[in-house]
Amino acid sequence: MEQQGIAIAIITALTSGAAWKFWEQKMKARQEEKEQNRAEDFAYRDDLKARVSRLEALLEQSNTQVLELTAEVHALRTEVGFLKKENERLKNI
């Protein structure tokens, strides 16, 4: 009986050390995975910020071009109006 108790104690001691190592490694791997996911999230966030900045700049540039083109269209319409009047005047001469 005594030998069984000693054998059980030795097996328990060896197993608990191995179990501790297993859980330690498992928790370490889980922590590394979380850190990697966090780094990927940061990279994704930074990429999105850069894309938004670029798109905002393009939107501002496009708005400026639209305003310029609108002004040019207005000027051309005015000029066409004058040319039509001049054309009608010359036809009636």
Keywords, separated by commas or semicolons:
mainly alpha, 1 helix, 97% helix, single chain, 93 residues
Structure commentary:
This protein is mainly α. The protein has 1 helix and no strands. The chain is rod-shaped, with a radius of gyration of 40 Å. It starts with a helix and ends with a helix.
Topology:
Elements: H1 2-91
The main pleated sheet reads as: none
Give the helix tally. Answer: 1
Q: Give, in order, the helices and strands.
A: H
Q: Which structural class should the secondary elements be placed in?
A: mainly alpha
What is the approximate shape? rod-shaped
- Percent of residues in beta strands? under 5%
What's the rounded overall pLDDT mean? 89
The low-pLDDT segments are none
